[in-house]
Specification:
Blueprint: H1 4-19, H2 25-32, H3 36-48, E1 52-53, E2 61-62, H4 64-86, H5 92-102, H6 108-117
Antiparallel strand pairs: 1-2
Length: 138
C-alpha cells in the first residue's frame, strides 16, 4: 500500500504523462511544488517499488504497475468529485480539495459503492474520464 505522498506523486506523474510525451523531474517538482532533491528522492523510492522507470537525466515514466496504481488513485479522486457534486450538492469550486483528502482512503468496497450510487459514471464533473475499477479508461 502506497503512502499518501507516494500516491500524490503517482497521480501527478500520471496526469503529466497524459499531457506530455516526456515528463522530467522538474515538471513533477513544479506541479507538486516541492524541491528537486525531494522529487529525486521520491522517484528513486518509487523506482525501487517497481512503479516508475527512472534513469538520471532521462524522462520519467510509470511502469504498468505504476500506471494501474495511479489510475486507481485518479479514479477515487474523480468518483469523489462526482459524488460531492451530484449527491451532496457541492460546487465545482470546492470539490477538488475535498477529493484530494478522500482519494487516500484505502477501501475498494467504499469506492465501488460510490460508483454504484452514481450509476457508474464515465466522466467526472469537469469532463475528465473516470478509470474503471481495473484502472482502464473507456
Amino acid at each position: 500500500m502506497a503512502s499518501t505522498a507516494e500516491e500524490n506523486y503517482l497521480k501527478a506523474l500520471y496526469s503529466l504523462s497524459n499531457l506530455k510525451e516526456e515528463v522530467n523531474v522538474s515538471a513533477l517538482s513544479n506541479l507538486l511544488k516541492v524541491s528537486l532533491p525531494t522529487v529525486n528522492s521520491m522517484v528513486k523510492n518509487l523506482k525501487n517499488q517497481g512503479l516508475v522507470n527512472y534513469e538520471k537525466y532521462k524522462p520519467l515514466s510509470l511502469t504498468e504497475k505504476g500506471k494501474k496504481q495511479a489510475a486507481l488513485v485518479t479514479r477515487k479522486h474523480r468518483l469523489t468529485e462526482m459524488f460531492l457534486v451530484n449527491k451532496m450538492g457541492f460546487g465545482l469550486d470546492v470539490v477538488h480539495e475535498i477529493a484530494e483528502q478522500v482519494e487516500h482512503i484505502n477501501s475498494s468496497v467504499f469506492f465501488e459503492r460510490m460508483d454504484e450510487l452514481l450509476d457508474f459514471p464515465k466522466i467526472d464533473p469537469h469532463g475528465s474520464p473516470i478509470p474503471d475499477k481495473n484502472g482502464f479508461i473507456a
